[in-house]
Design goal:
mainly alpha, Growth Hormone, Chain: A, globular, transmembrane
Length: 430
């Protein structure tokens, strides 16, 4: 008879399970990557859609359902455990590639993206929560860097591979067979190898006492769902600043998903070259998070987020101003750098401030607002592009990104415990 090993927090103590969850999240990201290059071109060439707003309905459907599902994923993870929610997300993913392959009209594509949004909300939220559970408070930024790097690295690789397959074998079915294999593999790994992590969160919660971050006391009492929603959305400065920055970040990503391939195609470049440009943004974003997540554990969160939002704004302005493959390469890579500075750092901020007893729900609320950005980007980008053109839509996103960065600079306080304590000591001795 063997005795169970005692639970421990930390990346090294849970390396095997953490690494497995990184691989699972790569499969989650690949489900999005299968669409990135292909669907905008499919809309124009096979379904003959006109009007950017109508074309972006699939991004809107994806964003709304993913945002709403994120909220429920956090609540259900606290109630039922992380693993059941993860498995449910993969079951919902299975029909998505088949619907895209067989879609006789655009309504099928929208329906597939509704299911994809539910899949992403359940699976991605849960892998985030599980990694935060495992690593504890010291290495949240590093953990989120690995998580998001795997997910968006897979988006990039799959987008490029889907573009290659589309150029060689046609827009359907070859690119979407990638997604079908990802869904089957993700389900199998989650059922047979992933372990529940809710007890790790309870272990961390048991060790918590009332703490102070940057001079601010944080209550650890059990909160209702309404209280968690209010704090993360509006009343708590760091949580709500992170939520709005996340929304704007994904507004930019939603815009890139729907409009960038069409902008690049206006020059007559091949589908393969469009696929390379589309993949560069999440590729740099994904790889960069391996660095920026760890940096946020050393340098703190606030300034990295502010600089990242302003970098995104500059990249979007450049992208809207140029029209060659070389300059678009530079602009999309710069956009990836700015996003890498922001993405894992925002999640780490939520983990810093939210107590383990309500952290999963706070992550769910944050991801609700963040992924609402897909829908907002589809609406704003589609309407502005229809009225004033593709480049005007990108300029609008640049202006919104500047405003978001200024909100973070003004309203957010530093949340990383070590950095916040150092700042408090410096302020007390000055």
């Amino acid at each position: 008879m063997t005795t169970a090993k005692p639970l421990r927090l930390g990346l090294r103590a849970n390396l095997a399970q953490f690494s497995l969850l990184v691989a699972v999240n790569a499969l989650v990201g690949g489900m999005v990557g299968q669409e990135q290059t292909v669907l905008p071109l499919l809309a124009e060439r096979e379904f003959h859609l006109v009007g950017y707003t109508f074309l972006l309905t699939y991004v809107f459907a994806f964003g709304v359902t993913k945002a709403a599902t994120n909220y429920f994923a956090g609540t259900w993870s606290d109630r039922f455990g992380r693993k059941p929610v993860l498995i449910a997300g993969w079951l919902i993913a299975l029909p998505v590639p088949l619907m895209l392959i067989w879609a006789p009209n655009w309504g099928w594509v929208i329906a597939a993206n509704v299911l994809l949004g539910v899949n992403q909300g359940l699976t991605w939220s849960t892998t985030v929560i599980m990694k935060i559970d495992l690593v504890g408070p010291r290495q949240r930024g590093t953990a989120m860097g690995f998580n998001e790097a795997a997910g968006y690295g897979a988006v990039a690789v799959t987008a490029a591979l889907a573009g290659y397959l589309a150029a060689r074998y046609g827009l359907r079915p070859a690119p979407f067979l990638l997604g079908l294999s990802y869904a089957a593999l993700g389900l199998g790994v989650s059922v047979f190898f992933v372990r529940e992590t809710r007890e790790h969160a309870r272990l961390e919660a048991a060790s918590h006492a009332t703490s102070t971050v940057s001079g601010r006391a944080h209550t650890h009492a059990e909160l209702s769902n309404r209280q968690v929603f209010a704090r993360t959305s509006v009343s708590e400065p760091a949580l709500s600043s992170a939520s709005q920055a996340g929304l704007v970040n994904n507004l930019n990503f939603g815009l890139s998903w729907g409009l960038f391939p069409l902008l690049f195609a206006t020059t007559g470049m091949s589908v393969g070259h469009v696929g390379v440009l589309v993949a560069l943004y999440p590729a740099v974003w994904g790889a960069g998070q391996l660095v920026t997540g760890a940096l946020s554990d050393r340098w703190g969160r606030k300034h990295l987020i502010t600089a990242g939002m302003l970098t995104q704004a500059g990249a979007l302005a450049l992208l809207a101003s140029v029209d060659t493959f070389t300059w678009w390469t530079i602009a999309t890579m710069l956009l990836g750098v700015g996003t890498a500075m922001v993405y894992p750092t925002l999640l780490a901020t939520i983990g810093d401030v939210a107590h383990p007893s309500w952290r999963a729900r706070a992550v769910g609320v944050y991801r609700l607002w963040r992924d609402s950005g897909y829908a907002v980007g589809a609406l704003v980008g589609g309407i502005v592009a229809d009225v004033w053109g593709l480049r005007s839509a990108i300029w609008a996103a640049a202006a919104i990104s500047v405003a978001s960065g200024l909100v973070v600079a003004y309203r957010m306080y530093e949340t990383h415990p070590a950095t916040a304590r150092q700042q408090t000591r410096e302020e007390s001795t000055s």
